[in-house]
Every structure is written in C-alpha cells, then in structure tokens.
Design brief:
This protein is an all-alpha fold. The protein is about 60% helix and about 0% strand.
Length: about 80
C-alpha cells in the first residue's frame, strides 16, 4: 500500500498561495473544489481564526509604530 502524503500546514499554505489571484483572493476553481468540502460551521471557524490572526497582526503593527514614534521622541497615547 502506498504511503499517504500528509498535509502539513506548510504544504497547505503553499497550495493556497499557488491558487491565489493577483488581488490575493482564492481562484474560483480552487475555492469550489477546496472550500466546498467544508461545512458552514467549519468555514465560519476558519473565518473567525483568520479574523483573530488579522487583529493580532494589526496590533503588532500598531505596537511597532508606537515604539518607533516613542524612539523619535513623540508621546503616543491610546484613546
């Protein structure tokens, strides 16, 4: 029996990147073949995880910019 090819997170990311349009969205054919395999609940979970990751990265960017401005002598306050 042939050994199954394990899908690692890295392989999944590579596959998704290969199937993106120039604007960063997933190509329709790939979306139809890939995303259709998930239930609505699973897709909602993926969206929620993506939203959390986006928020985390936005917070990191804000922290970087705040640190940069403070190093330049500015006082930064969060409203």
């Amino acid at each position: 029996m042939a050994k199954a090819d394990n899908l690692t997170p890295g392989k999944l990311v590579t596959k998704i990147r290969e199937n993106q349009n120039k604007n960063g969205t997933i190509k329709a054919l790939f979306a139809n073949q890939f995303l259709s395999k998930f239930t609505l609940q699973e897709l909602e979970g993926i969206v929620k995880s993506c939203e959390k990751e986006i928020e985390k990265r936005e917070d990191q960017k804000v922290d970087e910019l705040t640190k940069f401005l403070e190093q330049k002598g500015y006082e930064v306050k969060k409203k």
